[in-house]
Amino acid sequence: MKYYMTGATGFLSAYIIRDLVKDGHEVVVTDLAPHPEFVADMVGDESLMKQVTIERLDVTDLGAMILSMKQHKPQRVIHMATLLGAASDANPGLAIRVIQGGTNNIMTACVALDVEKLVYASSANVTGLPHLFEGNEVPNDAFLTSADFYGVQKIGTEHLSRLFKEKYGLDSTGLRYMSIYGYGKAFNAARGSLSPFHTELIDNPALGKPGKAPYGDALLDWLYVEDGARATVLAANTPNTPSRGLNVCGQRATVNEVAETVRKFIPDAQLDVAPGDWKFPPYLYDAKTTADEIGYTPEYSLDEGLRKNIDMLRTRAGLPTV
């Protein structure tokens, strides 16, 4: 099986590539600013990297995209290219071109070239007003609404998915990843949401550096990166999911609870967590629909994910594991 990926040398994408090549697939990796070293680090086997082709691609260029995909003839496509959070709010015009324009382009190319399955990165922000549910879980099929520009653009991608299915029969599934953590997050700070937050809370203590994190009482859903990658591959292997978008969840915990787990592994960690909550509602999202439709449930507990995150950082820094 041949896969074609956009935005594919970033944090989560590198883990997806690793899983695909280990399963014997070929992967065409495209990115506006390729980072092949990180992909090679994640794949970890020089012989497996022979199954990976890396190219530069701007997802706003439909012509270049169609020509590239026509050359490689993929059966499945994973679209991860985006403009995240604050960058979208700072430059709405560019966000429209990259997020909605890029998604329209990849869907158009998939229809034109008879791709059998498209998986694309949506966002938990598409149901970004959880306070409307009064502390209950946000259902997977909740009304799509958002308090920020990034979320509004991602809502557009889910509507595009529905329309391309109705008009052209395109089989696509959007994944709404929660707060992803893991080794490599900080290396791709420009691409990853909450990266400085994760660096202070996890990476710095792991490497013997002081860390200072805000919002100790904030409740998030912590998704270990390998679970996020596995969910993506499961979605790519599942035809005709009933839902256009699916919540990809991990384990719920406050920032203070994450800090306590880090301290359990690193007792002398210099980690200061400020009290208080943040402006966003708690991460309380339905996970059952995703389990029913693609068979995904998280395999990593918060303890297991944080320990692996910390050990990978320390190993690469020449420090003993915890």
UniProtKB/TrEMBL annotation:
Broad class of enzyme this protein falls into: lyase
Domain called NAD-dependent epimerase/dehydratase: residue spans: 4-241
Gene Ontology molecular function: dTDP-glucose 4,6-dehydratase activity
Protein name: dTDP-glucose 4,6-dehydratase
Pfam families per the UniProt record, alphabetical: Epimerase (PF01370)
UniProt KW keywords: Carbohydrate metabolism, Lyase, NADP
Record InterPro entries: Epimerase_deHydtase, NAD(P)-bd_dom_sf
EC code(s) of this entry: 4.2.1.46
Lineage of producing organism: Bacteria, Pseudomonadati, Pseudomonadota, Alphaproteobacteria, Rhodobacterales
Keyword Lyase tagged: yes
